[in-house]
Structure prediction request, 252 residues.
Amino acid sequence: MHTVYTAAMPSPEDIRSLLGDKYGNDPNADLSEDIRRLEGGEPLAYVIGWIPFLDLRVHLDSRPLIPRPETEWWTERLIQHLGKKYGESEFSFLDLCAGSGAIGLSALKEFPNAYVTFAELVPEHCMLIQKNLAENNLNVSHASICESNLFSGLPKKRYDIIASNPPYVPEDRTLDRSVMDFEPSRALFSGPDGLFHIRQIAEKAPPYVNEGGELWLECDSEHAEAARALFGTGAELHTDQYGRPRLVVSYY
Prediction:
């Protein structure tokens, strides 16, 4: 898997990933412009144009937030959980703040009988999700894409599962320059404590979740307990693969 970040001077690993993932190891490929972009601090995933995510090729043409390993990690656990809960049965799934659509794409790939809705604010990202559905040969008849600010643009219906990686970085936090200079700030920052969007989700989600349904939400490790508390006493907090609190699971 190629990495999300790159140093100012591309490493040999970056160059190998670039050559293999973008040019199919073509020995005649001209990497000069790509190397210039990497030297300028641009994330490797943007330079390559796509990133692997649970056996999918997630394209990044519209430059959404680059899916992180933490998101991939908990999405894989969600997929395992859905397999036990629903098997081959139909269920409805909402990818809220979808960005590239990586989470919802993964659900649809694993469960072609699921009905997956992608809610995304940015029109260009909505078009990107359409491309990612097609490029990964997924069941587009079971997918719908809504241009929506959280729940505001969605039809009045309920979902069995809501999964979300919303903006959750406190606005005064300093991030790596490759993130600050190239990734979309509105997909990252969420008010003074990083909880502005999560508060809205916690408040507005109940009418959109079926009885017995669940909401899986990524959060900032430094404010994870505060995020969990917004969903009530029954919500659970889980750690990521690095042992940091990262995921809130709320039951309805």
In short: Confidence is low (pLDDT under 50) at residues 1-7. Strands lie at 50-53, 56-59, 92-96, 115-120, 143-147, 159-164, 209-218, 236-239, 245-251. The chain has two domains: 12-48, 69-251.
